Amino acid sequence: MIKAPIIPRTAVAGDRSGWQQALARAYRTAGELLAALDLDDQVGAAVREAARQFPVRVPRSFAARMGRGDPHDPLLRQVLPIEAETLAAPGYGPDPLDESAAMTAPGVLHKYHGRVLLTVTGACAVHCRYCFRRHFPYAQANAGAEDWAGALAYLGSHPEVSEVILSGGDPLALADSRLSALVGHLSAIPHLQRLRIHSRTPIVLPERVDGQLLDWLGSTRLQTVIVVHANHPNEIDDSVGQAMQALSGTGATLLNQSVLLKGVNDGADILTSLSETLFDTGVLPYYLHQLDRVAGGAHFEVDDRRALALMGELHRRLPGYLVPRLVREEPGAPGKTALSSSVRTEPI
């Protein structure tokens, strides 16, 4: 179990300029990432094309958790462009969840009853090669500062909405001044009760959890849920454990969602360790997603039969509260779709 002190409000794990500087130093090419890991940095034309289609971005603190000299490291596999991304695969496309059909205002995705998602930025601290929004048209569909008025007006006119979800990109890639201002506007809408933040940044760049972030998170009237995204137990080191404890200290509920990825976490030992490591840091497993069929991600897919066998093993090994729900997101469905033992799906 990771033991780490909660970061007090008056102290920071990395001040505002600190985390931004750390992000600016992220690896931006496959060659420099491979060289840092003592791996062959000869990158062919197909890999360069994959990186052109979806650029490389890997924080150095995340890369430091990868195994040197190991080309099959599960963290490296998530972020390293490979030739397979350039190959077309049947059933894989640029908008696998048909999110363009759910956009009701710039940056506003209203897919489910009672909750609305805001894509507040197209930026991320890390570029995961399986990202279902790797082709998302952020320039035309982003609730940037100048467009928040429209998004806020939409939320204000829908009293049935009780929860707003900040997404992106990654919402924690925004400066705290902008996030604090947005959350202040959201808290002024009377019928909103909950704020949910989906972010991989505290996992890959724990320096982001600083005093300014903790201050505004702890001061909103909205019940706050932070859904982090860790796929493998090796992603969670002492610095991540400290960040999770600090976030929990604001009163936020901490959940984790993972994506089931071939060659990364498609093993019962790995998934069991992930759930136990998350719980040690105060985070409950929430969802284990089947891959969204985005163009460029087909090589990560795990078939349903294998996924269900893994879930059966997790149920055997773990208490129920440590077993994430195996789900798939389907366009137009009223919620996530749970995969049952007969490979029959049912909405939840």
Description:
The protein is of the alpha/beta class and 348 residues long. The protein folds into 2 domains: 16-86, no CATH class; 99-287, Aldolase class I (TIM Barrel, Alpha-Beta Barrel). 31% of the residues lie in helices and 15% in strands. The protein is built from 12 helices and 11 strands. The protein has helices spanning 16-24, 30-36, 45-53, 60-63, 74-79, 148-156, 176-187, 201-204, 211-219, 238-248, 268-280, 304-317, and strands at 103-105, 108-112, 115-119, 163-167, 194-199, 223-228, 253-259, 284-289, 325-328, 337-339, 345-347. It has an 11-stranded mixed beta sheet. Helix 6 (148-156) links the parallel strand 3 and strand 4. Helix 7 runs parallel beside helix 9. The longest helix is centred in the C-terminal third of the chain and has 14 residues, at 304-317. It starts with 15 loop residues before the first helix and ends with a strand. Residues 1-16 and 342-348 have low confidence and may be disordered.
